[in-house]
Every structure is written in C-alpha cells, then in structure tokens.
Design brief:
9 strands, Alpha-Beta Plaits, 34% strand, 258 residues, globular
Length: 258
C-alpha cells in the first residue's frame, strides 16, 4: 500500500497550455504534469528561479488526472499592450502599472511603436478534474506537506492563467491504496452538486458523465489498462526559461464498476 494525494480542480475558466505557435494559444482538455506541479509549487511558495527544487519535484512525483467534465471550449481574441525589452532595460517593471509607464515613455521617443500583441487564447468553461499525486524516490516534500499547502496556499493558485481562479475548494485529502485506480475509488470528494445546492443555485449545469476519462504517466502501475498512449511536451526542464520536454501519457475510459 502507498499514499496518494487527491484534490479537485474546478473553475468557471481554465486554460491548460499546449504548444503555442504565433498568435494561437490553445488549451488542452486537461492539465498536464507541468501544470499540476506548477500549482503545487505555487501553493508551497516556490519561485520560478528555484530551479533545483522544481526539477526535484519533476522527478519526485507521479500524477494522474481524472476528467469529470471537459467543459466547453471558449476562444478569446485577446489584445494586450507590452513594452519591448529595450524599454524595460532603462525602466524595470515590477507591476503592470510599471510596464505601461515604461511603454508610454518609450513611445514618446518611438511614436510608431504600439506595443500591442494579438493572440487567440483557448479556455475551458466549467471543467472539473480530480488529480492524484504520489511519490517517487527522493520527493522533496511529503504528501502531507503538499496537502497542508493546498489548504493554505502561499501564492495564489489558479487554473493555468492568472485570469482563471478556482471556483470551489480543492478538498485535498490522502488515501492509501495499491494502485492509482484503487486510490480514485477510495476518493472522498463532495460533488459539484453539493456545493451548487449549498449556495442556493439549484442544480449543476454540468452534463451527466457515464464514463470518465483518466490520464496518467506511462510506465507506472495504474491498475487500469491504457487504451492510448500520447506524447505531450510538459515535462519540466526549466521554469525560469519556460522549457519543457516530451513525456508519454496514458489514457483510458472507465466507470466505478471497472
């Protein structure tokens, strides 16, 4: 038997980055390993330049994601003003206000520079996920430490982008099981309908799901047979430089009777 940390992710909007080329910034249907570890690192209070600890987390934990609902896809035409790097050399920016001030000063000298960046950004609306995390050898933090951090995060936790806050408690808890599949069957989450009714909103708008998708890392004992194996570029190489490499991810569809 080993321990599994389970927690839930739900929000009105979520964005799970895929490979982005040019103006397109799509969102995957579920969070990858880099997103989950980034969320845990934020809760623990790690900064991006603490490279050794981020790499230790990459090697120290396995993750799985059970997709209760992928939600609906939203495509946003996004515009933002960003000062060029040369403008920030003479006017370092610590806040968004500093960035805009640096851009205005630069535009006085270079009036043809707009500083406007255009992009099409993908979001998932009303998506619901249940995440499982378990330890490999030399994990930098115990699952109990991570559970405590999810209850009282050091930095703000969000669902992929800063504009995507959590909509419900994560309900982090630890279970003991032989495999990932057994751990999910022992999970003790309050349903989304429970919170909806508690808030007096009637019933949930999420569609009923008869069979649930689950994704996990290739090469670990999962307790369920994979239907497909995908390649994703979400293994952390450097948080500070936003560098990632490929890993293999298994997928299966199941229900409680499997």
């Amino acid at each position: 038997m080993k321990q599994f940390l389970l927690f839930q992710l739900y929000g009105p909007l979520a964005a799970w980055g895929e490979i982005a080329v040019g103006e397109e910034r799509p969102s995957s249907g579920h969070p990858g390993k880099s997103a989950i570890l980034g969320l845990l690192a934020a809760a623990k209070g790690l900064r991006r330049d603490e490279e050794n600890t981020h790499l230790a987390m990459e090697k120290g934990y396995c993750i799985a994601v059970q997709v209760m609902s992928t939600g609906t896809y939203l495509r946003d035409y996004h515009t933002t003003q960003v000062p060029p790097k040369v403008a920030l050399k003479s006017h370092p920016a610590a806040t968004r206000r500093d960035e805009l001030a640096a851009l205005l000063l630069y535009q006085k000298i270079n009036p043809k520079v707009s500083g406007t960046i255009l992009s099409n950004r993908g979001y998932r609306c009303d998506a619901l996920y249940q995440v499982a995390v378990w330890e490999n050898a030399k994990a930098p933090y115990s699952l109990s430490e991570l559970k405590a951090c999810l209850s009282r995060p050091h930095f703000t936790v969000y669902l992929g982008r800063k504009s995507c806050p959590l909509g419900l408690p994560m309900q982090a808890h630890i279970v003991e099981a032989d495999t990932m599949a057994s751990a999910y069957k022992k999970a003790n989450f309050k349903s989304l309908n429970h919170f909806v009714e508690e808030l007096g909103f009637g019933t949930s708008l999420l569609p009923a799901v008869e069979r649930i998708s689950v994704y996990w890392e290739h090469g670990v004992e999962s307790g369920i047979k994979a239907r497909e194996i995908y390649t994703r570029r979400d293994r952390v190489l450097s948080r500070r430089r936003w560098q990632f490499e490929e890993r293999q991810e298994c997928h299966a569809v199941w229900n409680e009777e499997d």
